Amino acid sequence: MASEAGAVRIYAAGKGSGDPGPGGWSAVLAYGGHRKTLAGGAADTTAGRMALTAAVEALESLNRPVRVHLYSDSEHLRTALDGLGSDDLLPRLRTCADRHEITWRAAEDPAARAQLAELADLATAARPSGRPPAQPEDDECRHGMTKAYCADCRQIDAGVLPNGYHTAGGHAYHNDADCYWLRRGQQRQERMGRDTHEIVRIAWASVIPGELAPCEHCCTTEWLQRNRRGRGLSRSA
After folding, report:
1. Per residue in 48-91, pLDDT tens?
2. Using the 8-state DSSP alphabet, how is residue 150 labeled?
3. What pLDDT digit, counting tens, does each position of 167-184 carry?
4. 157-174: buried (b, 16+ CB within 10 Å) or exposed (e) per residue?
5. Strand, coil or helix: what is 103?
6. In terms of CB atoms within 10 Å, which of 36, 108, 144, 201 comes out highest?
7. Separation CA 53–CA 74 (nearest Å)
8. Which H or E element spans position 184?
9. CA atoms within 13 A on the CB side of 156
10. Distances from the Cα of 67 to the Cαs of 74, 97, 104, 129, in angstroms?
11. What is residue 233's predicted lDDT score, i.e. its pLDDT?
């Protein structure tokens, strides 16, 4: 059995109503004590396709190649991972499989079954119903999830812009692509004869909580004021 250490755990679930009919999907990405929840739905779909959608959306949200342990009770998803089937989502799944090292994990232990049961409820809630959405509870966002775990609604850190920069293998999030410490790190790698990674744009909302730390140089309210950036921003994009 592959070790859990250093692997991102993805739990994926899908629910359908009819064949086809309204359906919803949900997924949780977990690494250490950090979690990220995703959910969505479609008006004309199946439970199997929704489970496959949950896995693809979760895998595509990862910012760099990683080892992944994928948990689901969907036979449709398991078959797709084996390269079988005719779903039009298969090319996206194959691209993810080429990028990441994915290990299928059947939902055999009680903790995994409990997590998938919770996600099944969330997927059911994500199905289009044609009814006005229920008002969220005080600690929930408009998607019906705890605000701290919703990528779209969690409170943005003071001094952090919704879109910034990082390098593959780096551990910092930067508001500024020309940040002194970001460039200094690149120069240090060059002096040591090591390869440098490209500086790429990234959305703060796509970062798994705890995955990247805001740069102490450019992710500050003082930096925003000096550069006249981020006025009125209080939530992530």
Report:
1. 999 999 999 999 998 889 999 999 988 889 888 887 877 889 99
2. B
3. 877 788 899 988 888 888
4. eebbbeebbbbeebebbb
5. strand
6. 36
7. 11
8. helix 180-191
9. 24
10. 20, 10, 11, 36
11. 41
